[in-house]
Amino acid sequence: MVNLKNVYRPRIRHIFWKGGYDKSTFVSDLIAGIIVGIIALPLAIAFGIASGVSPQQGLITAIIAGFLISLLGGTRFLIGGPTGAFIVIVAGIIAKYGISGLTIATILAGVFLIIMGVCKLGVIFKFIPYPIVVGFTSGIALTIFSTQMKDFFGFTMDVPAGFIQKWICYFSNLGNINWIEAAVSFGCLIIAILWNRRFKKIPGSLIVLIVGTGISLILKNCFGIQLATIGTKFPELAGGMAFPKPSMPEISLSSLKELVSPAFTIAILCAIESLLAAMVTDGVTGRKHNANTELIGEGIANIITPLFGGIPATGAIARTMANINNGGKSPVAGLIHAVVLLLIYLFLMPYAVYIPLSCLAAILVLVAYGMSEWRTFKYLLQGDRADVSVLLITFALTVIVDLTVAIEVGVLLAIVLFVRRVMQTSDIHVIESNRVSSVEDDEELTPEDTPMLDIPSGVDVYEINGPFFFGLASKFEEFDNRGRNDTKVRILRMRNVPFMDSTGIKNLRNLCDRASRRGIQTILSGVNDNVRSELTKFGLDRELGEENIQPNIIPALARAREILALKQG
Fold it and tell me: 261 with 351, same domain?
């Protein structure tokens, strides 16, 4: 039975219970929260529209999820909300299953996140191979970039969903570019880039939101030129929006079955992005986060937020760093950021109708560039072939096929890479007196830690190094075929075997059975407590006999001589 008190420890509770939260800390959190709230405004709107939902749904996500992640999560500084990583998967789910399907998938993802946290799986995400993470993020960045070209250049045609088909459509409609929209997009992009180089605390996305809206109003009122704006796409926003009431979609067993895979993708993305962001903040601030508490907190947030019409949410690295850079000290800054967005939603939402879509496209192009990690991508291409293959496969699947498929294949590749790395650390050597030869390459070596051993004729000694698990099966078959015809006793020296799994036990049992049929007695040497407990659990110690499991090589050789004497007698 899992003790939740040992797993779930919200950071905000820890801060207030431990004391030390004073007026100066609150003032720092207040200033940081206000600034981060203003910074989050254009991103929440842009991510909402790019995901295929309305801008108010993006803001609702930033408000509710942002508040709950700070209140219930396991970090001091993480700011939650919608992020660019979810644009592709959310848009795909809506296109296939509709808004109700997205709501169900997000709730399921929240349940998965809670299960991960309760089962203490947070630490696992630290070990996901870097090429897989870079392949995901670079693929998502390219996909976001391609989806924004329509608004960036002012195209009015319907754009296909597929990546390749999308770009074919763009190039075939180059003559239909709206040059005024394109000029606004390029102007906003240049302003944002120059602003970010000069000023660090206030991002260029907020500045271009203000500048772009001003340009839109000037063009409309002075020259009669109407740009495509949030108001032209969502005219219902002009009258303002009340805060939505929670509602539960109809859930059926068939819909749950269909949405398990997308929900798993959302959960994995959420866990990867938030915990990577938390690790970055740990490095910057010297603090430590609680990964399992963070997963549980984000799970709860992703269960509640979609009930109000929100989309998936996770920790956002850019907003989190803005929080730290502006003096945020505790999760209270995240709560204030959510309150600021709520006030904007309630009182300033009607003015959002004047924001041009070309301006939001420029913001998302900048976000895509920041996500692309092209320098890291280029650097990883210089690695070994396995890492390069994993990087390119994950990237290609994300861009061309589907993010859900890419996540599933990526997880599988992570497992395969792990097995491959462990197999590279496991090997088997044949010892002849003080000489040892590798079963893999048949080279003769003399290990420094192998003393002079008096190995009698008819005795084979094999040294196994590394974990004894299912990945060692093929090596077992190889060295089993190397046994000499005059072999009477086989000693397996296991002093460097840290653990065995059930498949390793099975392989060992098969090896002993084959040896027994050939009249060869197997002796185990140097078995540690972990391995011995596995042998006992599966009854292999009784099958071999206690006298054939020795603490080290010396008594193992003595036991081998006894067996030889019995066989000769």
Answer: yes
Cα separation, 72 vs 62, whole angstroms:
15
Boundary of a domain, candidates 377, 392, 417:
417
Q: How far apart are CA 196 and CA 362, in angstroms?
A: 14
Q: If you compute the radius of gyration of the chain from its CA atoms, what whole number of angstroms results?
A: 30
Q: Compute CA 535 distance to the chain's CA centroid, rounded to the nearest angstrom.
A: 36
Kindly report, residue by residue over 320-354, the tens digit of the pLDDT. Answer: 988 998 889 899 999 999 999 999 898 887 788 88
Specify the pLDDT at position 479: 61
My answer on whether 407 and 433 are in the same domain is: no
Band of residue 148 on the pLDDT scale cut at 50, 70, 90: very high
Q: What is the CATH number of the domain that holds 455?
A: 3.30.750.24
Distance, in Å, from the CA atom of 163 to the CA atom of 144, rounded to the nearest integer, reads: 10
At 276, list the tokens. 């990577």
**Gap between the Cα atoms of 490 and 484, Å rounded:** 10
Q: Would you report the helix, strand and coil content of the chain in percent, each value rounded to 5? A: 70, 5, 25
530 is in which domain, residue-wise? 428-568
Q: How confident is the model at residue 435 (pLDDT cuts 50, 70, 90)?
A: very low
- Looking at residue 441, its pLDDT comes to 40
Which positions ≥6 away from 377 have C-beta within 8 Å? Answer: 134, 138, 391, 395
532 and 548 Cβ atoms separated by less than 8 Å = no
Count structural domains, the chain. Answer: 2
